[in-house]
Amino acid sequence: MFRRLPSADAGARLRLTIDGVAVELRAGETVAAALFLAGSKAGRTTPVSGTPRGPYCMMGVCFDCLVQIDGEGNRQACMIEAREGMVVTRQMGARALGGKAES
Amino acid sequence: MNKPDVIVIGGGLVGSAIAYGLSKNARVLVLDEGDRAFRATRGNFGLVWVQSKGFGAPHYARWSKRSADLWADFAAELKDATGVDTHHKRTGGVHLLLTEQEVAARAAMMEQLRREAGNDGYDYEMLDAAGVRSLLPNVGPRVLGASFTPYDGVANPLYTIRALHTSLAARGAQYSPGHTVSLIDKEAGVFVVRTDKGSFHAPKLLIAAGLGTRRLAELVGIRVPVNPQRGQVLVTERLAPGVMGGGVTFTNARQMVEGSVIIGDSQEDVGLDNRTTVPVISNIAARAMTCFPVLEKAQIVRAWGALRVMSPDGLPIYAESKTMPGAFAATCHSGVTLCAAHAREIAGWIAGGARPEPTLKLVPERFDVPKAA
Amino acid sequence: MTERFELAIVGAGPAGMAAALEAKARGLSAVVLDEQPRPGGQIYRRAEARDARLEAALGAEYAHGMALTEKFLAGGVAYRPNTTLWDLSPELRLSVLRDNRAGEIDAAHVILATGAMERPVPVRGWILPGAMSVGAAQILLKTTGAVPDKPAVLAGSGPLLYLLAAQYLAAGVEVRALVETQPGANYRAAAPYLLPALWQRKLLLKGAAMLRDLRKHGVKRWQGASSLAVEGNDACTALTFAVNGKRERIETELVLLHEGVIPNVHVTMAINGGHDWDATQLCWRPRLDAWGATSVDGVSVAGDGGGIWGAEAAEHTGRIAALGAAQRLGKISEEARDRAASHARASLARLRGARQFLDLLYKPAPGQRLPPDDVIVCRCEEVTAGTLREVARIGAIGLTQAKTYTRCGMGPCQGRMCGPTVAALVADERKMPEASVPPYRPRAPYKPVTIGALAAAVDADTPPPDASAGAH
């Protein structure tokens, strides 16, 4: 849904994966930005009705950007800066504590 | 409402359940406090609990068990009438024990409850560490044992109050919130309740106003010596089912139908203060994590403090005024467990029927006995 | 481990940074906590990165933010980024979370500079991916230089709508349309306040320039639009709305919504501070004295968390609150405090004079905050406006009871996104003034905290006592 302005393409590069697909970011950018740049429309489905949601506020208020990061579910993608090698998985429905989905 | 037959003061679980029962055959007006009232209904854990009730008071054990027995039918009736599912389920209940002292104290208590139950019967089991694990594979290594009874279960108090208020409206009863009652009088055989919003008249009156019952019952000559006791409760994000690893209900953590795990609770004598405090919620979290290590990474999204309505012996009080007959008071700290019995049997009594046998001793006069020197 | 400071400042936006610098100058030991990884707040988000090209696209105010942030970082005040406040006790103990570890800070005075949030105004389909807030899109621009890959529709009202459109145009990004919701009546209501606003020539010129930009680029503007709806099954495909008695439809994969900003009062509500209903900005504001002090002893508020006056005003209220704290803690005399605050006060008066014009011009239309029955109001628990109306009829006269009946406000956002709308619905359904509808009562933790982090405060070697033993 979003692209990076060529003029803003500066800074150290790093790579994370979203559902196994590599995404390149710049240092200081958030996991939520990675979702948008990767073209993901939804970062999760809700535990209530299973409908898709994407980040809405980008400032830590709405909790619609929840994803699984490095095995831990329901993390706020908009509040967490990307790190090299981070493994991001979309949060599908309710978080399964200690289940297969979370290692 | 024009000329109600009964005014109920208090729209929490106790007042609403009795009002619901009364509204089958009478015009009922429920007067309730405002949005920020102390309200045990929305602060409690939602257990329909029998196993520890009535230690030294077998009539209370009988009363709790009778209500637990009535709950399934009561829940079905509410669902039929309103479409609201109270999520009642009789799962059997487990209380986890972490030290040898806790195990010994619990075993002694359970055995005395059985002795006191006599012919009523009281089935329980003390589980050892392996026994607990066979029921619940997710308990932590520090859990040494547990007590179990088949009588216990759960209901969602929030859906229960919504179902009660919805069906009150459907039956033509009126639930009117936002009142502060200033005065209660009896004029020409009719009770007059004055609030900041007006005066209301009815030949019969029930005061079921939780902690407020103390002051209001005094106005009709009933002594209801209840005091606040704070409990703090934590709730996690919605989680996939099966966190507890078994279907029975625990006293200190349970997964709701929606998926959130509710964790509690505390008992603190702090007056009319329903705030949360960090040391207590930290302690509750630590105990929950010891019992269920899998909860370590679960996120708490809400916590609250709420005030229980406690009488000196912890048991309910049901009374009709001797000086102003037709005025009743009802209060207890187990509004969920006793909800079904309140809707059926206490409502029946107030409507003019017989007083339920297990409640004959649950009168305020029991507190009049002078203390031994 | 518990740390001690004379002053704890929560939030590193313009108010928090200005307060910190002033406190330092007055000899207070101060710490600034901020849940974001970098200082600047939302307004100067990532200003510290000092990207000259971004600076050009974002304008001169952003450059001012960069200078302030640089001064703050060089100023020697203790600064804790990635640090979330989750409890503030009456004894002024701050329970915080950093990297999922719990910690404590004891302070003699606390300044809450937690800023504003966008007013959540539900429309049909606002939960769909592809619908997000204008502020969110601007944050993506500031932090990542990210812009829509296909032309977006900006809808709602308020200066931020034009600002983001202007920033996109400056960056060479096409904007499909602006759908503006402020009713015509607002122009008449605001007109008498244009004169005081003229003192803020800079601000008005900036506004005029933004509108000129839109015209120059031929961006379609719809005015007086209502009943917005985002269409789509799994993601946004179009925006529809009523205007001039007709329903219009614009195909787009990205709708950016905005209806102004409101103070973030979560913490001041949680500590039971007094609040007043602001009938113009349609929001709760903490009740503050001339030094930003709340009704809770030792707690002040600075910046937009105390009422929406903008970033420039936030720096002034930050300074004023720090001076108030310095005097309260005996660092300076009343005379010194008053003298030091006089310049900030004069600037503040001028800025506030201009604000009334903007507030009235962009005030949400009556009915706009009352979505149709099928619209989801509580995004976390997916509670619709219809359900909320129903429970208002059976007995909810405030948000706590509405929450009890429906679970609205029980999700991870803790009611931040639904509270204002639930209140508007209850007020409308029960014919109550909105000021008399009690809001949610937030409790700790103010943001989600793991059980492990909470439990870490307890001695691990002894099993925690069974606090409920007698009850069950």
Question: How is this structure best described in words?
Answer:
The complex is a heterotrimer of chains A (103), B (373) and C (472). Chain A has one helix spanning 31-37; strands at 2-4, 13-18, 21-26, 44-45, 52-53, 66-69, 72-76, 87-92. Chain A is mostly beta strands and 103 residues long. Chain A has one domain (6-92): Ubiquitin-like (UB roll), CATH 3.10.20.440. In chain A, strands 2, 3, 4, 5, 6, 7 and 8 form a seven-stranded mixed sheet that branches. Chain A is globular and about 40 Å long. The model of chain A has no long low-confidence stretch (mean pLDDT 92). Chain B has 373 residues and is of the alpha/beta class. Chain B is built from eight helices and 19 strands. Chain B has helices at residues 13-22, 58-82, 100-117, 129-135, 157-170, 213-218, 278-291, 339-350; strands at 6-9, 28-31, 47-48, 93-97, 125-128, 145-149, 153-154, 174-176, 181-187, 190-195, 198-202, 204-207, 227-238, 249-250, 253-255, 260-264, 299-310, 317-320, 327-331. In chain B, the strands form five sheets. A six-stranded mixed sheet of chain B has the order 8-2-1-12-19-18. A four-stranded mixed sheet of chain B has the order 5-6-4-14. In chain B, helix 1 (13-22) runs parallel beside helix 5, helix 2 packs across helix 5 and helix 2 packs across helix 8 (339-350). In chain C, helix 5 (159-170) crosses helix 8 (201-216), helix 6 (184-190) runs antiparallel to helix 11 and helix 10 runs antiparallel to helix 11 (334-361). Chain C is built from 15 helices and 23 strands. The model of chain C has no long low-confidence stretch (mean pLDDT 92). In chain C, the strands form six sheets. In chain C, strands 1, 2, 3, 4, 5, 6 and 20 form a seven-stranded mixed sheet that branches. Chain C has a five-stranded parallel sheet with strand order 8-16-10-11-12. Chain C has a three-stranded antiparallel sheet with strand order 13-14-15, with no helix packed on it. The longest helix of chain C has 28 residues, at 334-361. Chains in contact: A-B, A-C, B-C. At the B-C interface, helix 5, strand 13, strand 16, helix 7 and strand 17 of B face helix 12, helix 13, strand 23 and helix 15 of C. Strand 1 (2-4) of chain A pairs antiparallel with strand 9 of chain C, so a sheet runs across the interface.
